[in-house]
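This entry is set out below.
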Amino acid sequence: METIIVERREDGVVSVTLNRPAKKNAINETMWDELLEVFIEIGESTTDRVLVLTGAGDAFCSGADLSGKVDDDRHQLQRMHHYNRVGLALHAIPKPTIAKVNGFAVGAGMNIALGCDLVVASDRARFSEIFVRRGLSVDLGGSWLLPRLVGMHKAKELVLLADILSAAEAERIGVVNRVVAHDLLDAFVDDWARRMAAGPPLALSMSKRLLANAHSVTLSEALDAEATAQSVNIASDDTREGIRAFLQKDKPVFKGR
């Protein structure tokens, strides 16, 4: 990979680092391609259990790179559809995903962070839906994600004014799950990642999907989906292992089957 670093551990935690620190990890055409490739790969992997997404240097991601020349003859709408595939591929990963926000996350960088299941931010992090300052409208799923996270009126405020949010304010309004001291960020995220990587992959995946569908189904449909998922769990080795460990006061070892 030219613009990202992928690191895999034996416990199933895979870290993806946006690696253009001189550009505050702005996403160029190569990075869009590489992110799409790696997100699909992680989604299909039988050994990856948790994704941690972060940025190199002192930024998470400053959004799309607006400075570089695009060397292809695609219409801009075609390119936007390609970028959207990255957001969809991240959302479709059937495993827990954590954004480890170590610095600025603005524009598409903010929305790629919000596309993760959990967002943990350094107290040095800053967030902004900065698009209108560049003469652009919100993209990479921000119009869908923000109202679900903070409500419609707050989402409009964030998008139409494009203010810079401190980490503390982002936590207060529900944009991030936790804010921790910068020096503790790695250890905190690693703890969450290890705990989820040790969890039951089938149950985690189905719980993630149930929650993702929550705004598009009725209560009756949600209950039916939960019943189906639970039936799959009960027939699995992992549930038997979980019950065995509970009865024997032991630590379960889940294998995803």
Remarks:
- The beta strands are 4-8, 13-18, 50-55, 59-61, 97-101, 104-106, 118-122, 126-128, 165-166, 178-180.
- The first strand starts at residue 4 and ends at 8.
